[in-house]
């Protein structure tokens, strides 16, 4: 007897419908075809134990199992459930005529319980596109899969429930979750807030500019100056995720198995902070079974690298292309996969090995050669892709001890949202561009062409700091964000602010170079186009 059940295989972001065919003839041999990996092959033993526990016997026959398409590699344990159901149907242990109406996935434990799987959301999207009536998933994954509308999603606890449902002996209702209501309710719930930060107004301003325009940023300062503290609060001022962004982000986390049980849509922008010992594969993705890396898990959010010089230099260099193209293509002998990685790159570092170079309260014990060697750990091409470089000084005692809270994240977020709305309106006719950081060279000339005063200031900066052509473009992008979408910058003493350059890191005294050229390098930037004025552009 020949029986077919349906499931899905996830390879990167691509999901393929898999047909499990089971044929039984007299004999005692078990054949498995279709390029199943070790986990798929070991599924026979899990299925045999689960069937015995649930009161069924593993069929004694010449069993041939084919997983079509046969030339596609199948990986993981999510094929256990459809294979077990197909074996029971082929053996005549269960009788049902609705196997072609449902896609089913799930790992079986030895007592027949269904264990959670990876990629339930993209599988549900595939099931709907293939016009299946419903999808059967482990109960732990039901909220994740129920996000997809126009598809009946059933969450089952064990294999017996699946059998009862398919044979019609027991009625189960599809899970319906108001995911959008939950999504909007959780968008404003943050554990960390900028009101906890005392002082550092210039750094807060830099973070606000970075959030408004989607710019990359690096903070340089001594230990204890608040670099990590402020970076962790950056998601609280970013604009909320849209439903399309949330769905895209949730798919990536679902494929990587990073969604917790009972999670539906990701409602807040992701914040990924990998340790400096991370490998290249873990950062950009790949592996034997291609998985998204940290840069893809930070898609539509923030990738924070604390103590940037401590990262392996070769590992950091792989960030060059993804930061520029906002996608990563992983090419191997057996596969070619593309993952999105449109993110804000935020980094922090000390100015020298001891950490106290330029600190007025501590004495630096590092030699100029040591400082130079420390700074050279970060290559020029990587720094050239960072829009904003901000120096941080220690917080004075009067700011630490004051009882008054700083400006709340909710207030800063409203300004950022208004700036993003202006940019969205400006780029409404350009696909894939939503903020100033994503502007092309042609768009820079259209919306961020400086006047004569701005050109003179740019010329001085280019000549004194040996800036590259890429730095020139990024200065204009940052200036476009500052010029019209944010309130004027307050007068701050010794403010060291937006300097998109790399050459200062090639000196023995980087902070001195910053101090010579500081505070709002281009404020006179105005759009070339007459249809956008300073009051309506950001």
Identify the overall geometry.
Answer: elongated
Can you tell me the CATH class of the largest domain?
Answer: Alpha Beta
Amino-to-carboxy terminus distance: 67 Å
Biggest sheet architecture? 5 strands, parallel
For the biggest β-sheet, the strand order reads 11-14-17-10-18
Number of helices: 21
Radius of gyration: 28 Å
How large is the share of residues in beta strands? 15-25%
Proper CATH architecture of the largest domain: 3-Layer(aba) Sandwich
Structural class category:
alpha/beta
Write down the oligomeric state.
single chain
What's the rounded overall pLDDT mean?
87
Question: Explain this structure to me?
Answer:
The chain folds into 2 domains: 2-177, Ribosomal Protein S5, domain 2 (2-Layer Sandwich), CATH 3.30.230; 185-516, Rossmann fold, CATH 3.40.50. 35% of the residues lie in helices and 16% in strands. It is elongated, with a radius of gyration of 28 Å. With 538 residues, it is of the alpha/beta class. A 5-stranded parallel beta sheet has the order 11-14-17-10-18. A 4-stranded mixed beta sheet has the order 1-2-4-3. The protein has a 3-stranded parallel beta sheet with strand order 5-8-9, sandwiched between helices. α1 packs across α2, α7 (201-213) runs parallel beside α17 and α7 packs across α20 (469-485). Residues 492-538 have low confidence and may be disordered. The chain contains 21 helices and 18 strands. It starts with a strand and ends in a 22-residue tail after the last helix.
